[in-house]
Amino acid sequence: AQTVTQSQPEMSVQEAETVTLSCTYDTSENNYYLFWYKQPPSRQMILVIRQEAYKQQNATENRFSVNFQKAAKSFSLKISDSQLGDTAMYFCAFMRSNDYKLSFGAGTTVTVRA
Amino acid sequence: NAGVTQTPKFRVLKTGQSMTLLCAQDMNHEYMYWYRQDPGMGLRLIHYSVGEGTTAKGEVPDGYNVSRLKKQNFLLGLESAAPSQTSVYFCASSYSTSGEPTGSYNEQFFGPGTRLTVL
User: Fold this and answer.
1) Closest chain B residue to the Cα of A34, Cα to Cα
2) Using one digit for the tens of pLDDT, what is the confidence trace for B80-92?
3) Is B103 on the interface with A (CB under 8 A)?
4) Nearest-neighbour CA in chain A from B50: distance (Å)
5) Nearest to B5 by CA among B21, B24, B20, B18
């Protein structure tokens, strides 16, 4: 089983500022996918961003970007220009290539302050 | 499209009671999953299905059973509920991509969750 570690249980950020969430993972695989999911108070799980391990370029989706360091097995999420609607729990997740099962980290609760 | 739906949204059980959670998807996905979410532990896979009529155990299957008699439905059963099964349960479904140079992946779509309390 893959291990996904999110070492920050909670983070707080001022509106319009930037926050970075950390995620590390343990795998012996070379081909895999990494994901960040957002879970707002509504409980709905929303895919924020995906990174393919074979790609060196970091994925970006609007204000969300990742810093993928394959050798270090690190996959951090940066939220720029934080908005009140970004308040949520964020989960890092791992999937092996050609597999269909996700392994999740414990989550980081992000609170955006007005 | 409704996507992935779960019934019920909330439920309170007494220890020893049984119940079934229903998950339905209208996206014609082959794969379906049941997870539980507990504080400080993220989502953990209970059971999953790779197609109609097939099921398999995930990370935490004890105390649960599942069935996938129809492609669009995935049922999660608790035969004798225990307080340790108090949790939020999520269903998900996925399709397999193709064309990736190093293999496919499955993007999972989640239902809204069911909060279950066992007293």
Assistant:
1) B105
2) 999 999 999 999 9
3) yes
4) 9
5) B24
